Amino acid sequence: MSFKSLIFFAAMIPLLFSAFASGQKQKDDQVIRVAVDMISLPVVVTTKDGRRVTDLKKEDFQIFENGAKQEIAGFAATDEPICVALALDTSGSTELKLARIQNAAIKFVHQLHPDDEVAVMSFADDVRLQEDFTIDRDKNEYGIKKTRTGGWTVLYEAVWLALEDVLKPIRERKALVLFRDGVDTHSGRATMNETLDLARESPATIYCIYFDTERDQYEINRRSSGRTLPPVIWNPLPPVTGGSSGPSPEEYQRGKAYLNGLAEYSGGIVLDGTNDLDEAFAQIAKELASQYSIGYYSSDPRHDGKFRKVQVKLNKEGLVARTKKGYYTKKDKKK
């Protein structure tokens, strides 16, 4: 489904090629050597009272697939660099809060490890790669400050492009940090189910921050009414019949459930940043600094398209591991 990348502006194409090239660099101390069929699991370990544990070794973990123990083939500790795609919702509903969002995002990138690479994306009427992967925090900040508000929200297209085009070429540990404030209003090239399936398949962890700007919508529409530009129009996918001018509470709940699905399928978390956006970003920075990456080759070679449950256990008592629930195998095509 590479045609989805057409929504990037032509000026973004060189940046995507650069992202691909940087992901292919051989960094012996950073890269997990994986083959096509290696299953990669992002794992966060905590004590039962929630304190993160970051000093474990490969020998401390056990992997089970559908109850069968697997041999660990790849392991990256928490101190190894991670590549983070930061995707910011800058749709029209964020107009009154954009400066706050930008400042919180800038603080976030400065909280990451100096060797962590960050790519900055934004999405509103379209998806833009504002700045390619780099460890240069000044460039990260510049990419964040370039973001501008738009009317629509192509959330599903942003998730698809982040996972499939920006992060997929990267072989290091990787994560998508997704900031969004509402429901999808304009995606035509990706759907909710497609992106949820992609989250199941991707080795990237997805961390989501929900930011409620529902009350700001009315003020934005009021201001827009005196302009030549049309006011913000909400039209979630699938289309809502009856001429509703704004998302219903049920649609907002569906939007939150979507975030929960992305996080659960990928081993991440969802945080509400409405009251304290800085703290939400800070919690994700701590999560990223606490994430292991573990890879294995399944002992079941069948490609039957069925879901396989994955479980991570620790050899030390009193510890809890969180990772993705499992994955779907790719079904062999009939000859």
Keywords:
335 residues, alpha/beta, 2 domains, 6-stranded mixed β-sheet, 4-stranded antiparallel β-sheet, 14 strands
Q: What is the count of β-strands?
A: 14
The major pleated sheet works out as: 6 strands, mixed
| Secondary structure category | alpha/beta
Q: So, CATH architecture of the largest domain?
A: 3-Layer(aba) Sandwich
What is the helix content? 25-40%
Number of domains: 2
Residue windows where pLDDT falls under 50 for at least 5 positions: 1-36, 227-244
**How far from one another are the termini?**
22 Å
The CATH class of the largest domain: Alpha Beta
Based on CA atoms alone, the radius of gyration comes out at 20 Å
Write down the secondary-structure element order: HEEEEEHEEHHEHEHHEHEEEE
What features would you describe in this structure?
The protein is of the alpha/beta class and 335 residues long. It folds into two domains: 32-75 and 308-328, no CATH class; 80-288, Rossmann fold, CATH 3.40.50. The chain is 29% helix and 25% strand. It is built from eight helices and 14 strands. A six-stranded mixed sheet has the order 7-6-5-8-9-10, sandwiched between helices. A four-stranded antiparallel sheet has the order 4-11-1-13, with no helix packed on it. The chain has a four-stranded antiparallel sheet with strand order 3-2-12-14, with no helix packed on it. Strand 8, helix 5 and strand 9 (205-210) form a beta-alpha-beta unit.
Topology (SSEs and partners):
Elements: H1 13-24, E1 38-47, E2 61-65, E3 68-70, E4 72-76, E5 82-89, H2 98-111, E6 117-123, E7 127-134, H3 137-145, H4 155-167, E8 173-180, H5 192-201, E9 205-210, H6 216-224, H7 249-266, E10 270-272, H8 277-288, E11 291-297, E12 307-314, E13 319-322, E14 326-328
Parallel strand pairs: 5-6, 5-8, 8-9, 9-10
Antiparallel strand pairs: 1-11, 1-13, 2-3, 2-12, 4-11, 6-7, 12-14
Helix pairs in contact: 2-3, 2-8, 4-5, 5-7
